Give the backbone structure.
Amino acid sequence: MIRKTQLSVSMAIFVAIASVSALAQNKLPNVVVLATGGTIAGAAASDVQAAYTSGQVGVEQLLAAVPQAKKLAVMRGEQISNIGSQDMNDEVWLKLARRVNEIAAMKDVDGIVITHGTDTIEETAYFLNLVVKSKKPVVLTAAMRPSTALSADGPLNFFNAVAVAANKDAAGRGVLVVVNDWIHGAASLTKTNTTAVQTFLSPLRGLIGTVAYGQAEFYRGPVGRHTADSEFSLEGVTALPRVDIIMAHENMDGKLIEAAAAAGAKGIVIAGVGNGNMTQAALDVFAAQAKKGIVCVRSTRVATGNVGRNVEVNDDKMGLVASDELNPQKSRVLLRLALLKQRSLADIQRLFREY
Ligand code: ASP
């Protein structure tokens, strides 16, 4: 038989434990999860099949699938879109960037996680890196295997992303991407494999850090300017200028460059061979478009390395811009934002060096 005193002691212990855990709960950082779709929210008919559809699982299901993350942060979710990131578009970008800025400005928010597809995550991360005005952690994550797959990588990636977003040491390092235990900077990461779980690398600058089961270690910050220190702003912006990417190759002529200009491109990025090169025929057409006022940037189709100014091509004479460290897809992002206002070519070249 339990005596009255025993009962009241156990009650007191219960109340004490409950209030300690309530206190701990209150101390957890607040992380907002913005879901955009991708394979992390993808579903297949079976757990061992390659074919699947991105963007099938909603944000609440995503949160519910990783209950372990509740120990790291108090989370709430919002669905921004639910698309494969191959369909990422300006409408979603502008909505996402506005929402990230609004949420980051909230006093009770410590960090933001964005779930995204891997195909264009580097573009979205870099875009946000340029237009988010906050030092708070903004962390994108993704998965290579759909949520229904055997050994799905999404849950641990999500858990690690929440851990990084909730970590004070992540602040001020720009927009980050957490996939497969690695923390990448938005300017440096790129997708390098079509199907492997270990697809993202930061080839030139290396990692910002690593994260193992929620334990993050930071090595450094990004070198280029970003977020709170960025000069770009989306205030009053309802549309982004058109910039096309054209890949260079053997026997290239200038027809696609002319077609891009005719389609209304305000800027053209060449994914050049080697150090941003192309055939003389293409170069002549490129320089002619530059003379007409289209901003022409030489980037490279090579996986890693800088494109230097005036190396094999006389950029000064031809009125071209060299992409420096940015690959074609990120060069396009930077150029679109650069073209939101009138700038000299020298100023645009400066942007490619600084960001
Ligand atoms: N196509 C998918 C997407 O980018 C691939 C992925 O998420 O891994 O949405």
